[in-house]
Amino acid sequence: NNVILEVKDLKMHFPIKIKTKSFISEKKYVKAVDGVSFSIHEGETLGLVGESGCGKSTTGKMIVKLLEPTEGSIRFRGKDVFKTQGEESKLLRKEVQIIFQDPYSSLDPRFTVGRTISEPLVVHKIGDEKTRKERAIKLMNDVGLMGEYFDRYPHEFSGGQRQRIGVARALALNPSLIVCDEPVSALDVSIQAQILNLMQELQAKYHLTYLFISHNLSVVKHICDRIAVMYLGKIVEIANKKDLFDNPKHPYTQALLSAIPIPDPEIIVEQEMLEGDVPSPVDPPSGCRFHTRCKNVMDICKKQEPKDLNMGEDHIVACHLYDNKED
Ligand code: SF4
Ligand code: MG
Predict the structure, then answer these.
(1) If 17 and its partner were Cys, which of 25, 191, 315, 318 is the partner (CB 3.0–4.6 Å)?
(2) Which ligand lies nearest to the CA atom of residue 285 in the structure?
(3) Domain total for the chain?
(4) Which segments cross the bilayer (predicted)?
(5) Is residue 252 part of a domain?
(6) What is the pTM of this model?
(7) Confidence band, pLDDT 50/70/90 cuts, at residue 268
(8) Which domain holds residue 46?
């Protein structure tokens, strides 16, 4: 499998000022992303899952260059995206696109559907008005929107249709990789499956690679090949979907999985829900960041940060429970 994207030791620390009681302001950092590494293979969907505030959206924004990392590297087809310049950098901007969570706020209300979808072509000076219109109508057709909507405005559409517009816009430049940041989380459950199915169809048709960000493991189960679980700025487990669901190793992954509602009311399963709030990413817990909420916590967990351990083919976990049990 060809690696299309390689993320290495990525960090994003946002500076903040904290005012103390004595009116001295102290400079601290929100460690939103704190040493994240993973790769994505061409044509696959990698899920990036965790609770809100764990750094998954920040990771996505760095990949599409909306944010510049504090440290670490992102390589697209072997090229460091923050070091490319000129034509190479322009090409990269076309190749990697993003779909945002909120189809209401991510579309400019002053732009028609047609203008919204062809905007990336205008920005990149591709084609003339006529060819751009043809391309936009083709894309509308691809995402299941009628060409007649070309001159209408986003507010005339439902959330699901707006997200179709967002998908069409992301496709305009013929990208290889799309960062999908909670693309269905703002939609009604009944509409979610339609959009997910559309995304899968488009993936096959245009040979797309997805980084699929979600707080919801049941959404990810539908669409992903592999899944990375993130907690407080770090990835705690990565595995292929089957391994992650059948044989989760990290106590956090196990807790997330047990929080998935069981659709069959006949099946009664004891659920261990996650307790406690997510600690602050300004002063994350020492050692293993999950130790304040972990049911398996040991002494070593508070003192030493767990290393990434290899638990089998393509299955990595960072947890002291498996120290010396690598295979
Ligand atoms: Fe729990 Fe310790 Fe594993 Fe962290 S390292 S998840 S605290 S057992
Ligand atoms: Mg988010």
Answers:
(1) 25
(2) 1
(3) 1
(4) none
(5) no
(6) 0.92
(7) very low
(8) 3-234
Per-residue pLDDT at 189: 86
Task: Using the atom order of ligand 1, give the atom closest to the CA of residue 297.
Answer: 7
Domain annotation covers residue 326: no
**Tell me: the pLDDT tens digits for 166-209?**
999 999 999 999 999 999 988 988 899 999 999 999 999 999 99
Instruction: Examine residue 129 and state whether it is found in any structural domain, yes or no.
Output: yes
Give, to the nearest 10 degrees, the angle between helix 159-171 and helix 113-123. Answer: 20
Cα-to-centroid distance, 253 and ligand 1 (Å) = 11
Residues 106-125 have pLDDT tens digits of 888 899 999 999 999 999 99
Most confident of 72-81, 105-114, 152-161, 258-267: 72-81
Ligand 1 within 6 A of 248 CB? no
CA atoms of 121 and 125, how far apart (whole Å): 6
229 lines ligand 1 (CB under 6 A): no
* Any ligand 1 atom below 6 A from CB of 297: yes
76 lines ligand 1 (CB under 6 A): no
Q: Given the CA of residue 251, which atom of ligand 1 is nearest to it?
A: 6
Q: What is the CATH number of the domain that holds 51?
A: 3.40.50.300
Beta strands in the chain (DSSP E): 3-19, 25-41, 45-49, 71-76, 79-80, 96-99, 177-181, 209-214, 226-231, 234-240, 308-310, 316-318
**Token duo for residue 267:** 């099946």
